[in-house]
Specification:
The protein has 107 residues and is of the alpha+beta class. It has 3 helices and 8 strands, in the order βββαβαββαββ.
Length: 107
């Protein structure tokens, strides 16, 4: 269960934290580097806080969160909505890591 959203005091205005994850917009450069189509949606894990739930769930810096269960993640609001919908259950989080799709099961 990921916690509350809060703004991170950072020079990057597009960066946000969410339960130990520093998240940023997915850029065209990152899409190309990960061999993703230009219309692919997702958000990038810029940093994982050590000893956080996100770290124990298996998230790594550079992961691209693309989907939670059947909800496509285009921005942080989509991620928050997906976690609220599946709040009390384990959920499959579809990520791209190094150009390969991976599924993390998050409780």
């Amino acid at each position: 269960k990921l916690g509350r959203l809060s703004l991170l005091n950072s020079p990057m205005s597009d960066a946000r934290t969410f339960e130990g994850l520093l998240l940023e917009k997915l850029t065209q450069k990152e899409k190309k580097a990960n061999r993703l189509d230009s219309d692919t949606q997702g958000i990038v894990v810029a940093k994982v806080q050590p000893d956080s739930k996100a770290q124990s769930d298996g998230f790594l810096r550079g992961d691209i969160i693309m989907q939670v269960e059947d909800i496509v993640i285009g921005d942080l609001n989509d991620l928050k909505r997906a976690y609220r919908m599946y709040k009390k259950r384990a959920k499959r989080v579809y990520i791209t890591r190094g150009g390969y799709m991976k599924i993390l099961v998050v409780k």
